[in-house]
Amino acid sequence: MLLPKLKAAANITPADLGYTLPAEWEPHATTWLAWPHNATDWPGKFAVIPWVYGEMIRQIAAGEKIFLLVRHQKDAQHARQILQHVGVDLLKIQFVTHPTDRGWTRDTGPIFVKRNAEHRSANSGRAMPGAPEKSEMAIVHFHFNGWAKYPNWRKDTKVPETAAKLLGKKLFHAQCPASASTKNFVIEGGGIEVNGRGTLLATEQCYLDPKVQVRNPGLGQKEIEAALKANLGVKNIFWLAKGPQGDDTHGHIDDVCRFVNARTLVLVREKNPRDENYRPLAENWERIRDLRLEDGRKPEVIELPMPSPLYFDGVRLPASYANFYISNAAVIVPTFNDPNDRIALGILGELFRDRPVVGIHAVDLVWGFGSLHCLTQQQPA
User: Fold this and answer.
1) pLDDT in tens, 129-153
2) Rounded CA gap, 56 and 296, in Å?
3) What is the pLDDT of residue 134?
4) Spans of all domains in the chain
5) Which of 173, 38, 148 is nearest to 99 (CA)?
6) How far apart are CA 40 and CA 51, in angstroms?
7) What are 337-359's pLDDT values in tens digits?
8) Nearest partner of 135 among 4, 256, 319, 42, judged by Cα
9) 359 Rama sector, left if φ>0, alpha if ψ -120 to 50, beta otherwise
10) CA distance 103 to 376
11) DSSP conformation letters of 2-40
């Protein structure tokens, strides 16, 4: 099937047309993943990773369709074999042939925004001039660049374009403010967290550090906030400090703090004062006192524990219960053979009453310096 050629929207931002980034717990049409193939992400452990994917997909596919990126038919056949063994209904899987460098779809995949229904002419009920006619949904391309760290990203950065063609959706290229010396604005999906009502959280470590893994050279906090508001339709931005040790992304928020509904969030805490994560995570708890939501009210903040330090080959891994994924059928949570697994699952189980909370063994997965949320990207219904 030939895919339609789409032109990216120019000079008009998603916010101009009333698009906003929905919350993850809102209904999904599909989840996007990329079948694993880069063994250098999990050296010595790669053989088990497809089986972890199989369990993730089994849980997610119970409530929604899966778009699974594969490089070629050999990858697709391997995926089918794994998924059949674990009991996945293959009718729920749509294979999308697209070359990828790696599999971290949260950061490389399409980020979907939806247009608010009220952003129409109050008199006629028609869409504003320039707004899409056939769909209330669009994709924002944030120009992934390997977390400003790795050289193998040029295949991954084209995934949003493929998704836009496949789905026939408007594609926005994320732009820096007009005053900036660079044009393309770079963020990753794992570096932002929203409540779907206008509030966005991120860490200073990830996007405001002027020296380490700088995604947008020359942009300060004011310009970055302007770009986030223009490209995601958010109105209220709050900066936490840092993420836990071992995070290859230099502070992605999805290992730190997550909304579970529009007014409640979980925030990780390390209680051992001798642990290297104790001070940076404690600073986040100091800052969160100042957070006000888009309506000016304070959120409810729930403590989420950290697992005991997890090492492999002498390397501290970014193990965090905050890296859960909210799918239609279940909330899947990474577990680490740790006594705090049970506590974290219990806390999240009390917060998500509308769907089960399911633990997925992630000791091997996190050797790739990411976990369940890092691998998934939701497409809103």
Assistant:
1) 554 444 499 999 999 999 999 999 9
2) 37
3) 45
4) 15-116+132-380
5) 38
6) 17
7) 999 999 999 999 999 999 999 99
8) 4
9) beta
10) 9
11) PPPP-PPB-S--TGGGTEEPPPTTSPEEEEEEE----GG
Residue written as token pair 């952003």: 119
- 250-294 pLDDT tens trace: 999 999 999 999 999 999 999 999 999 999 999 999 999 999 999
Instruction: Please state the φ and ψ torsions of residue 141, each to the nearest 5 degrees.
Output: -95, 115
pLDDT in tens, 210-221: 999 999 999 999
What's the CATH number for 15-116+132-380? Answer: 3.75.10.10
Distance, CA of 297 to chain centre: 25
Rounded distance between C-alpha atoms, residue 7 and residue 260, angstroms? 36
**What's the one-letter identity of residue 362?**
A
**Coil/strand/helix, residue 371:** coil
pLDDT at 7: 44
- Among 29-33, 175-179, 182-186, 287-291, the minimum mean pLDDT is found in 175-179
Nearest to 97 by CA among 123, 75, 81: 75
Q: Classify burial at 289, counting beta carbons within 10 Å of its beta carbon; exposed 0-12, middle 13-18, buried 19 or more.
A: exposed
